Every structure is written in C-alpha cells, then in structure tokens.
Amino acid sequence: MTLLFIPLLLWNCELEPVQPNTDITTEDIKLSTTFTEDWDDWEFEIDDLSYELETRFTNDWDSWEVSGDEFEARIETNFSEDWDHWTLKNDEFSLRIRTSFNEDWENWRIDDLNSDWNATVRTSYSENWDDWDANFDDGHLDIRTSFSEDYDRWDAYGNFPSNTPVAFKIALLFPPIITHIMMRHELIEP
After folding, report:
1. Model pLDDT, residue 47
2. What is the pTM of this model?
3. Domain assignment of residue 15, yes or no
4. What does the alpha-carbon distance between residue 141 and residue 157 come to, in Å, rounded to a whole number?
5. Most buried among 52, 54, 78, 125, using CB within 10 Å?
6. Can you give the pLDDT of all 190 residues of the chain as single tens digits?
7. How far apart, in whole angstroms, are the C-alpha atoms of residue 95 and residue 79?
8. Number of folded domains in the chain?
9. Parent domain of 114
10. Cα(183)–Cα(175) distance, rounded to whole angstroms?
C-alpha cells in the first residue's frame, strides 16, 4: 500500500526554482579610531560613505553623536552610567540598544521602536571580544577586529537588504565597540 502512495506523493510535489534575492547587498565596512586608542572618536566607512561617531564631551561614554552623509543621530544611555540600556535617536528613528540580560555584555538586542525590525548582536564564542555576529531580518553581519585584540580597527562583512537605513547599520556596529570601551575603562567587567 505504501508503495502506491510514494509515486503519488512525488507526482504532487512541485519543485520551485530558487530565486536569488536581488534586494540584498554585500557590505564591506571599516571602523577605526581617528588616532590610536582615541576611544572618543571613530570613523565608519559604510556603503563607500563616511560617518563619524564621537562622544559629545571627552570621556563622556554616556553620550555619542553620529554624523555624516546627510545623517545625524545621538546614541545615549537611558540613565547616567546605565551601560545596559541605550537609545539611538534622530528625527526619523528611535532604536533601543540593550543587553539581552542585565550585564550580559556578550548578548545585545536592538529594536526599532517604530516598526517590528529587531536584531541580535553577540560574541561568536563566549568571551571572544574580537569576533561578533549580528543577525536581523534578511541579513547577517560578521564584525571582528582587523587583528587579534586590535580594538582600534574593526571590519564587518555581511548582507543587508538594500533598503536598510544607516541608523540600523550603525546600531548593529555599536555594541562591540562600546563593550570594548567600557571594559577598557573598567566601567564593566567581562
């Protein structure tokens, strides 16, 4: 009896050709401090465009400004020295950047407060601060230091839907950088 159903099942199964998603772009992103160990001032190269991420005041790790190519935003802790909870905000976007669990510096979650977009950013392996993975709708980003324990220079590779806003890309890159800065300045313990 089973032998009769197998040909019938095979006949009813139609194979659909795999269609490549042409809305996905591969990114080659570079992040670096302006000067060696100048943790207040970063340059991001995304989509052949440059953005600057810098603290509003020297060594004020609670408050950052992002600017470049017709984009400006602020990234701030929700409360002074509340390193678990951040917000990236401008006129268009409000993104919540937070650790998945209190003081779990290896696992971050990003949520767009105006849509259902969200992402996770986590170390690839436990306490491997050089290598991070970001996962989000239709995309993945591998974020790692250019050289082992060289926290001044990072590279990121991955795929974004072509309509991914710059704010989302910067939010994905922020957790590895801020985690290292906070550890470097002994504001948090790994």
Report:
1. 78
2. 0.83
3. no
4. 6
5. 54
6. 555 455 544 445 444 443 334 445 556 799 999 888 889 999 999 878 899 999 999 889 999 999 998 899 999 999 999 999 999 999 999 999 999 999 999 999 999 999 999 999 999 999 889 999 999 987 899 999 998 888 899 999 988 887 889 999 999 999 999 999 999 889 998 8
7. 16
8. 1
9. 23-184
10. 12
Pairing of strands 63-68, 153-161: unpaired
Sequence-distant (6+) residues with CB within 8 A of 40 are 54, 55, 58, 59
Residue 3: per-residue pLDDT: 52
Read off the amino acid at residue 105.
Answer: W
113 is a domain residue: yes
**Do 59 and 41 contact (CB within 8 A), yes or no?**
no
Rounded to the nearest integer, the mean pLDDT of the chain is 86
Determine the number of helices (DSSP H) and then strands (DSSP E) in the chain: 2, 12
Taking CA atoms, 19 is separated from 23, 73, 83, in Å, by 11, 36, 43
Q: Is residue 1 part of a domain?
A: no
Chain mean position to CA 119: 8
Is there a contact between 73 and 170 (Cβ–Cβ < 8 Å)?
Answer: yes
∠ Cα 83 89 94 (to 5°): 95
